[in-house]
Every structure is written in C-alpha cells, then in structure tokens.
Amino acid sequence: MTVALDVLLPHHRDPEGLARSLASVAAQTWAGPVRAVVLDDGSPPADLARVEALAERVRAEGRLGLLLLRNPVNEGRPRSRNRLLDAAEAPRLAWLDAGDEWYPDKIARQSARLEELLAQGRDPARTWITCGYDMAQGARVQACRQEVGGDQHRALLLGRSLRAYLWTILAPREAFRLAGRFDERLTRLQDLDLFLSFVRAGGRIEAPEDHRPLCRYAKSHRGRSAEEIRACQRIVLARHAADAADLLPELDYRADRLAARVARANGRRLAAARYLAGAALRHPRLASRAALARLGLRPEPAP
C-alpha cells in the first residue's frame, strides 16, 4: 500500500516562487498521493490574491491536492512552521520553502531509501531521509553532498559535511514529533535547531547512497539582518554545543564570519569589518588561513 505524503510550504510575499515550488511538487515521479499544505504568512492583499488564484489552478489541474491556510498578519517563519505541523495529516511529511525546487525523482529516491531502512528494522520514529542538493547563488550553482556518517551532532554544528536544510528532508510524521516544535524565538536558524534536537533525541539522518542532488536551493543573504542571525546563533549554540565545548571557538568564529557575509551582502561594510575582527580574535589560526586563501596562497577553507 502506497503511503500518502503532505508537503508543507510556508509562504510570504513570493507568489512566483511558490508557483515554481508547487510545479516541482506536481512533477514528482513518485506515484503516491500528495497534498501540498501552504500557509500564507500575512502577505499583502495583492500577493494573497495571486496565491489564491494559484491554489485554484493547482486544484483544477488535479495532479496534487492543496490546502491553503492563512495568517491574517505576518507571524514569522517558526510560528508558521508550527502551524503547518499541526495541519499535517499524512503518515509522511516533507518541507519546501517558496522559491526552492525539487527535481522530479526526489520523493521517489528518498521513499525507496526509507523503505529499505524500514525493511532492515529501522525505527520510523527515529529516521529522517535527507539528500544532496544544488545551491544556486546568482549565476553560480554548486552541487552539495550530505555526508551522514559519523557523529551527526558535531557535523551539524560545523555545517561542512552535513547541513541543516529542512527542505531536504522526507520522514515519517512521528519522526518530526521526536524533534519537537520550532523555537519561536528563532527568526533564523530554526532548521539547525530542529536538526540538532532530532539527533540529540536519538534520531538518525540517512540519505540515498549515490548522493546526487535531488533539489535546488536559491541562496541569498539580501534583506537579512546580520545581528538577527548572530543572535539566533547564540541561542542555538547555548542549547546544543555544551557537550561539544572543544568546538566552541571554531563555532563562534564561523558564526561571526556568517554575520560578516550577511552584513556585506546588504552593503553594511563597517558591520562586516566588525564581525570579521571578532572572528579573528576568536580564532586567529582560522582567520589567518582565510586571509591566505583570499591571497591565493592556500585553498579556500570550507564556508
């Protein structure tokens, strides 16, 4: 018997991006029943009207079901995601952010891997399936693997070989209960917090064995707040890094470097310089390596 799937999509002020995302869901080769659950988080009336027209068109095409929910005012991504979790009914869940896209065989490949693991006796309440992805930054597209071996808690904290992106995940609904709710204080980095909570509660992240990209992520730091991201980093590290104290200098260094990139992408050069100075003070060795890489004297370190 084929298991049904709910795809959970938060949306705010991006009807064109939502249309691309829903088209990629409708184009899946997986044969099971799929319902898209879209939550519009207080978009302006003109955008909401376009989303409502899109929902009607998707329903009329008949390739997938669609439930459209709405927050009357913008409540933020973590609260919207919690509401989507409450609305989910299918035995399996996946996530997709408006503007990002799945490749046609994503759900089929992940479902096959999940079925294989369940046949081996894996606990469905402790199993998430991630996948490789293409990260698009402007004209540059980078294929990224998800390495699921080893200590996943440390790997997620470092974010080099295993990254916390919710739209890569397919899992039984009960496996999301293991991770708990989204922390509504975290206006950013809710994915990382949830991934870490899942792993620390005894969950295990797996992936199709060939690691090829199964989705496309449009990454941009434009319009984001460096201070907001850095504050969320502090919350996540305080909660999850106590048993990885040896990593804290590097984690704080990387957090400052990320804040610097966000500030620079938004034209805030003084703020970027301040975060870079803080990073250099936290971890002089890594700062020196990054400086040598910029001069072309050694390979570029992992972001």
Automatic annotation (TrEMBL):
Gene3D superfamilies recorded: Spore Coat Polysaccharide Biosynthesis Protein SpsA, Chain A
Superkingdom of this protein's organism: Bacteria
The protein's matches in Pfam families, at most eight in alphabetical order, are given as: Glycos_transf_2 (PF00535)
- What InterPro entries does the record point to? Glyco_trans_2-like, Nucleotide-diphossugar_trans
Tell me the ranges covered by the Glycosyltransferase 2-like domain, including all copies: 7-117
State the name under which the record lists this protein: Glycosyltransferase family 2 protein
| Species for this entry | Rubellimicrobium aerolatum
